[in-house]
Specification:
5 helices, Type Iii Antifreeze Protein Isoform Hplc 12, elongated, two-stranded antiparallel ribbon, about 230 residues, 7 strands, alpha+beta, about 25% helix
Length: about 230
Amino acid sequence: MALAETTWRLRTFAPPRRVPVRAVLGLALAAAAVAMVYSVNRSAQPRTVEVLRATRDVPVGAVLRAVDFAPVSEALPDDVVQVLVPASDRDSFVGRHAGQRLNAGELVSLRQIQPPSRQIPPGQRLYTIPVSPEAAAGGQAVDAGDNVEVVATVNKGQPDQARTQVVLPRATVYQVGRQGTSYTPLGGGDQSVGDAKLTSLTLLLASDADYQALARARWIGDLDVAVLGAGESD
């Protein structure tokens, strides 16, 4: 009886077993690492999404139309999907101006459909000059994205004293303004305004010095614009 009582007391007051803290912590860290690796690998794995592909070449500044895009299903990783335009958003940006050039057959990125005004490089300027079709390569030959040369002629009414000089050896046409379609770019072969007369050109100028030279020339002489050929040097 005494022996049984002693055994019972020893069992009753025996210290609790210690939890292996280090082992539990190690298991938790290992589980977290496995979960992280799984998450990273999963995000890197391609998944099929509906995005937009350009159906034709569209120059910068051109008005975007629904026919410029076609929805396609592509297997892409998440980091690529985040920079592309979902097919479901096509109608929301139709009518905007292309912020960057679109190339036929390529997937369309969000940056390409952002308003061009948000993507003017630091230090550059947009400047609009009034022009007539006769003063700008016949009018119909000028398109958004073209490189042009701008010259100014002073004393145009007096042939003996008239002088013509180059104001800008090279500038990029940002937008083309035509009668009834004020400052609407004509890039991408938009036939809806093909008969409208040229009224203005908005040029992307490389520096403040170019802006000052053009602004001064505009008020002291008559401006003419010539379209430069591809690859033509300044």
